[in-house]
Amino acid sequence: MWTREHIAARAAAELPQGSYVNLGIGLPTLVANFLRADQNITLQSENGLLGVGPYPAPGTADADWINAGKETITATAGAATFDSATSFAMIRSGRIDVALLGAMEVAANGDLANWMIPGKRVKGMGGAMDLVAGVRRVVILMEQCTRDGESKLLERCTLPLTGQGVVDRVITDLGVFDIEDGAFVLRELAPGTTVERVREATAGSLRVSL
Q1: Cα(100)–Cα(207) distance, integer angstroms
Q2: 46 is catalytic
Q3: Strand 98-101, strand 20-23: pairing
Q4: Choice among 46, 71, 105, 196 that is catalytic
Q5: Of 12, 50, 71, 192, which sits most exposed with the smallest number of CB within 10 A?
Q6: pLDDT given at position 37
Q7: Burial class (CB within 10 angstroms; exposed 0-12, middle 13-18, buried 19+) of 29
Q8: pLDDT tens digits for 166-186?
Q9: Could you give the CA distance from residue 182 to residue 154 in angstroms, rounded to a whole number?
Q10: For the whole prediction, is pTM greater than 0.85?
């Protein structure tokens, strides 16, 4: 199966040349470490940075450079900083091509739940609702099952929704899935796993198209 780093590297490899990409908090932030120089990808952080670079080497962090998850990062040559209003104007006006987000649940119809679990303390929605409504493509990066072994790929989400019918692709530790016609379509298997294992770990409708 893929590790978190493998998932991030797989996501980085498929980003369109020259695209503008928002990195959600958590696993998606690792993607910055796996971009090739020839991809010409510009990463955005919703707290006000265009030109996010990889995580800093040990001992080189600058506390003034942070991402939306409050982690220290680097900035690429030509990076720009701005206020939150400008950041969300970019997102809401369709100027961001791809959002890479984490998830608690994804439904076979493309619904996404990624911001709260009822009864647990949360800081708020953050920018997730704006992102799924404003970007051209939404790709989810996550482990396919919870720590209790329950699938996060469901027929219908049970948690409060972030957006309806917004997810285009899901990359998990078991493989790559597209969402089409109310089903998860398995496009790629992670090394070391099987279609049977994927079926066991998927609670929503699944089609295989390898």
Answers
A1: 23
A2: yes
A3: parallel
A4: 46
A5: 192
A6: 85
A7: buried
A8: 999 999 999 999 999 999 999
A9: 11
A10: yes
Total domains, the chain: 1
Across residues 132-143, what is the average pLDDT?
97
Q: Could you tell me the residue range of the domain that residue 99 belongs to?
A: 4-208
For the chain, counts of helices (H) and of strands (E):
4, 13
- Here the CATH number for the domain that contains residue 59 is 3.40.1080.10
Note the Cα 188 to chain centre separation in Å. 17
Express each pLDDT in 93-131 by its tens digit. 999 999 999 999 999 999 999 987 776 766 666 788 999
pLDDT at 123: 65
Q: Is 31 helix (H, G, I), strand (E, B) or coil?
A: helix
Distance CA 49, CA 84 (A): 9
Q: Contacts from 174-180 at CB under 8 Å and sequence distance 24+? A: 174/1, 174/2, 174/144, 174/198, 174/201, 176/10, 177/153, 179/106, 179/108, 179/109, 179/110, 180/207
CB atoms within 10 A of CB 71: 15
Helix (H, G, I), strand (E, B) or coil at 26: coil
Burial letters 170-192, b for 16+ CB under 10 A, else e = bbbbbbbbbbeeebbbbeebbee
What are the pLDDT digits (tens) for 199-209?
999 999 999 99
For the residues of 40-77, what is the DSSP string, one character each?
A: --EEEETTTEEEE-PPPPTT---TT-B-TTS-B--EEE
50, 42 Cβ separation under 8 angstroms: yes
